[in-house]
Amino acid sequence: MAKSDELLNVLAKAVKAGGGIHSATELAFMLGVPCDPAFRKFLTDCVKKRRLRRVIKGFYESVITPPEPETAIYKIIKKLRSGVLNYISLESQLSHTGDISQIVMGRVTVVTKGRSGCFDTPYGVIEFTHTKKPIEQVAPNLYYDPDIKMYRAYKEQAIADLKHCQRNLHMLES
After folding, report:
1. Which domains can be identified in the chain, with CATH numbers?
2. Which residues, including other chains, have CB under 8 Å from residue 135's CB and lie 6 or more apart?
3. How do the pLDDT tens digits run along the chain, 174 residues long?
4. Do 24 and 93 form a contact (C-beta atoms < 8 A)?
5. Residue 31 phi, psi (nearest 5)
6. InterPro entries of this UniProt entry (predicted)?
7. Contacts of 33 (CB under 8 A, 6+ apart)
């Protein structure tokens, strides 16, 4: 079996197991090869041949078995800031709960204990905003959303995050 066919086979199995977005290191591990420059060149060739799609630098998905479009952006969020607390807040959460009339399109606002930053993906823009608040202070104001497999802020926490980040409060309904 060709290496690219083996890669697609591994990716198809990973999607069935709930995966879909993978780092170069994870792909190398799944294939049992080192993640060296030759492997990275192989991934670049797979992207050029349209067997893989680069969703963001260092992260890939299969074009044949892509993840669910509704949840793919959340998988990317978890990959980009793994190992730290991340939760959907600010305008994205307030739009989700109907507390602002605007519907946030093509953008997800995330509060993180990791670094701030913006990432443009095929599924939309991910905006990370760092918080210095201790986890113990934030955790009681979060709930787990099983549909996206991430935490979301309750309304009060999302509004507090807006104020803390000095963002526009004029769009709040009440």
Report:
1. 3-67 (1.10.10.10), 83-164 (no CATH)
2. 85, 113
3. 677 778 878 887 776 666 688 999 999 998 899 999 999 999 999 999 998 999 999 999 888 878 888 889 999 999 999 889 999 998 898 888 887 877 777 899 999 999 999 999 999 999 999 999 999 999 999 999 999 999 999 999 988 888 888 776 666 655
4. no
5. -90, -10
6. AbiEi
7. 39
Cβ–Cβ under 8 Å, residues 21 and 75: yes
Q: How far, in Å, CA of 139 to CA of 58, rounded?
A: 30
Question: How many residues are there in the chain?
Answer: 174
How far, in Å, CA of 165 to CA of 171, rounded? 15
- Is the Cα dihedral 107, 109, 112, 114 positive or negative? positive
Helix 37-48 / helix 24-31 crossing angle, nearest 10 deg: 100
Q: Report the sign of the C-alpha dihedral through residues 110, 114, 120, 121, in that order.
A: negative
pTM, 2 dp: 0.86
